[in-house]
Structure formats: C-alpha cells, structure tokens
What we know:
Elements: H1 8-19, E1 23-24, E2 27-28, H2 35-50, E3 54-57, E4 63-67, E5 76-82, H3 95-110, E6 119-124, H4 137-142, H5 148-152, H6 161-167, E7 185-193, H7 198-202, E8 206-212, E9 214-223, E10 227-228, H8 240-255, E11 263-265, E12 269-272, E13 278-279, E14 282-291, H9 294-315, E15 318-323, E16 330-331, H10 334-345, E17 351-356, H11 361-365, E18 371-376, H12 392-412
Bound molecules: (2S)-amino(hydroxy)ethanoic acid (HGY) and manganese (II) ion (2 copies).
Amino acid sequence: xxxxxxxxxxxxxxxxDLGRIGxxxxxxxRVAFSAFDVEGRAHTMDLMRRVGxxxxxxxxxxxxxxxxxxxxxxxxxxxxxHIDTVPSGGKYDGALGVMGxxxxxxxxxxxxxxxxxxxxVLVFTNEEGxxxxxxxxxxxxxxxxxxxxxxTAVDQEGIGxxxxxxxxxxxxxRIHEAARSPGELxxxxxLHIEQGPALDRSGTPIGVVTGITGRAAFEVEVAGAANHAGxxxxxxxxxxxxxxxxxxxTVERIASELEICRVGTVGRVSVSPNATNVxxxxxxxxxxxxxxxxxxxxxxxxxxxxxxxxxxxxxGVSVDIQALPPTIPAPIKPEMxxxxxxxxANHGLATERLPSxxxxxxxxxxxxxxxxxxxxxxxxxxxHSPLEFSTPQACADGAQVLLDxxxxxxxxx
Length: 413
Ligand code: HGY
Ligand code: MN
Ligand code: MN
C-alpha cells in the first residue's frame, strides 16, 4: 500500500513562518535562550498541540510532544532536532527536522493513521552551544551524559544555567530527571540539511548519514601585559594578541598542513582592553577540532598544547586552555542506514551515503537508542550563514522520507 503523502506546501509554509521568528538583515538570531528562542519555542509548541501531541517540557528545557500508539507497551519512536540557530545563521539548520517531524504527525492525523508505537517529537535545548558554550545540551541531558562543567558554566553575559533554563521552562535542580534510560525510546530519527557541498555537487536528493563527527573544543586565554602602544619598545612587549595570533595559525596548520585532524576552527576572539593605543593584555578565543576518529582529536589537542607551551616560553605570556566536555564520534548502524535507503527508494529518490561534518543531537541520542539521519542538499554547501538555502522540493523530499522511515520502523520493530 502506498505510504501517505506529506503536504509539501504546508511544510514549506511552516518553515517560512518559523523562519520569520528571529530573522534580521544579518540572518537568523534565534540563539538558544534568547527572546527569539522563547518566541520560537512557543510557536512550535502551538503547532505540536494542533497535530494532537501532548506537549511537556523536561527539566533541561527539551520540548517533548507525545502521541499514543495502538500498542502502548511499545517504546516510542522519536523524531526531532532543534530550533535554536547560530548568530547570523540560516533558517533550515534544525528547523527542517522539527517542522518536518510536525508535518509527519499532521499527515498521520489528517489520514487518521495510528501507529503501533507511541510517537514523540523532540525539540532539543541549545543544540548549537553558541550563546551558552556547551552544545547538544538538551540531547546530552536526555541521554544522561552531561558533565559537571556543563552545569556550572556561565554564558558570555555571565549568566548561569539556572536562570537560562527557568526562562524556557526548565529546572536546573531537577536536571538529572531529564535523563531517559536505554530502551525508553525505540529509535530516534533526525531530518537535517547536509550543511556541506556533497549532495548539491552530486545532484543527489537524499543523504544517508553513515556517522557523525566528534569534536574537541576549548576556551583559551592568553595573558600578557597591557602597555602603552607608543612608548613600549617591541623587545619589551608581552603582546597577548600577537601570541594568540601565533596559536590561531597553529590551529589552521594542525588541520591543513599537518593533516592531524579533518578541520580546525577559531570562531570567536575577544581582546582586552581592545583599544587602538594599548598593547593587548589578554585575549580569549575558542578552538574546535573535528574528526570522525577520536584518536585524531587527541593528537590535535596534544599538538595544540605543545605549541602553546612553546609560545609561553618564547613570548613570556601565560596560556590557559580549558577543555569543554568532548563530543565522541557516533557511527550509525548499517541497518539504520539501510532503512533510510529503503524509505527513499519507496519514492524513487536516489541516495548517497556520507558522514556528517556537523554535530547533531542524534549523536547524543545514540547513547540511549538506535538513530538514523536523513540529509537533504544545502545549495552551494552553505550553512551557519544567512545564505543557507535548501529548495522547497528538497525539504519536502526529506520530510517524505522521514515519514516513510517512521512507518517502516513502526512495522518492523
Ligand atoms: O556546529 C555544528 O556542527 C552544528 O551545527 N551544531
Ligand atoms: Mn543543526
Ligand atoms: Mn548548526
């Protein structure tokens, strides 16, 4: 029997509607815990209720929409992603997975289809980890894998998690109640834009994700000596920005020339006192290395720390390196990949198997259930930018495959 068809126009309208929340001339600003994020969450919960979901918020602020199945003893099949964006980001990253999941539930409701398994739509808190620098926060809380430093962190405004979580209906004092045990969920499926160039270049409509990258991230502070820019001889300076620049070039060298890991990035830098006529006293910057191999991340960290010790000795500065909780790579089981390929073939959609260079909530959820990810093409491979774009057809193809995937899993498990 042919599977039910999602409504492509309705899906793309819901993407446009959500895309207006936090949209500015500089791109999407729906950063986690911001007023735009609070508004986007309220909008999304309203949509979830309209498709018959019972909506709750767990202590980590994750939004959980649940619908019973015909066999209540079965563990729920979950669909989801995130709606928080990076600053000046795009309107498809995360949003497609959430709006696609809601469209699947709307289609089932329209066609009066009840699945055997209960269904859940999950909207995870602070996937990006930009405002509040600990990414995959909600999904790691649900997977029971938060570290102590996740709970004591403060964001760039010096505000802690307790306040931020209260603003979105979470509760830090009960954070560990967000954890769900293995077996509570039957599977977790995530539709997402590729955020890279592979599918667009090959003209393939659906990506079957084979694994999700790991990440080693650090907050680095270089402390030198602020001094007068006009009177301080070059040989007597301890210029924190000069030393930081040497280390920033090292990050690039570790990933490119030395090929120790796949990519390395410094995305955020702050200089103090940040004045034209003052030799910089301190510089704080972010570092992240990514690779599907944990050993490569370990080697990249070691090389970075070795270079930092050299810069300390040569420049007479101190370099403090604080590691964020590591994100381990998550392979996706072949049988879950095959299910995505089968769901795609149901609609004659060609597939390509590829790893994800981006991190996703699915990699956290892999700790407690079987996961699968569906990618659709990002035009020119652009993401985390106002230029991020996926065509309405691509978004509809992805949502259709998500629905077929859920129905195949519902029949099989
Ligand atoms: O940064 C990432 O890889 C993802 O978009 N959070
Ligand atoms: Mn994302
Ligand atoms: Mn992202």
